[in-house]
Specification:
By secondary structure, this protein is α+β, with helices and mostly antiparallel strands. Helix content is 17%, strand content 39%. Strands 3-7-1-12-11-9-8 form a seven-stranded mixed beta sheet, with helices on one face. Strand 4 and strand 5 form a beta hairpin.
Length: 183
């Protein structure tokens, strides 16, 4: 579930093309040939076809061999995922609204499991799976994709080092998640 937010410095027309190695399984609004051409407001409101959106949304299925499982991450009980997300998402550059929308979505869709491994997909791997072509080009791009894998027992792994990005000028934010369903 990647969600793309746009924050231009002034109300602007923006074209967003999602270049994915996998076909879309769902988009909202419907993804047209040539990408979404929208009117974006500095507050983050996106006007597409005279309908208003907080973000542009797309889903794809990704084959295991396309995903570079993070080597570092966090192992928490399922009941602790909300606390973890509230802590790390702002550090990864998400604002309050983006953090809440990520949190609200993922806490409802992750199935029961005693523990979860939560890792951060490396930017290089994210670009290989799905890249974005945006015009005008954002001055700041923050792309956050978390990897969720259910575990039967806890494991010890190193935590990642996180550098919080700064938002400067026209900013694009994308958040998403990958859920490892099958062993």
């Amino acid at each position: 579930k990647p969600a793309i937010y746009l924050y231009p410095e002034t109300t602007s027309f923006v074209n967003v093309q999602v270049l994915s190695s996998q076909p879309f399984t769902y988009t909202d609004p419907l993804y047209p040939l040539g990408g979404w051409s929208v009117l974006a407001d500095p507050t983050g409101i996106i006007n597409y076809g005279n309908k208003f959106y907080d973000y542009l949304y797309y889903e794809t299925k990704v084959a295991d061999d396309k995903i570079e499982k993070p080597k570092n991450g966090f192992v928490v009980q399922k009941s602790e995922i909300g606390t973890l997300l509230a802590d790390i998402l702002p550090k990864l550059g998400l604002n309050i609204k983006e953090t809440k929308q990520f949190y609200d979505y993922w806490l409802t869709v992750l199935p029961r499991s005693p523990y979860y491994f939560v890792g951060i997909i490396p930017q290089s791997n994210l670009e290989q799976m799905t890249s974005l072509n945006v015009l005008p080009k954002p001055q700041t791009e923050i792309r956050v994709t978390l990897y969720f894998e259910p575990l039967e027992k806890t494991i010890i792994i190193p935590e990642p080092f996180i550098i919080t990005p700064k938002r400067t000028g026209f900013t694009l934010v994308e958040w998403g998640g990958i859920y490892k369903r099958d062993k």
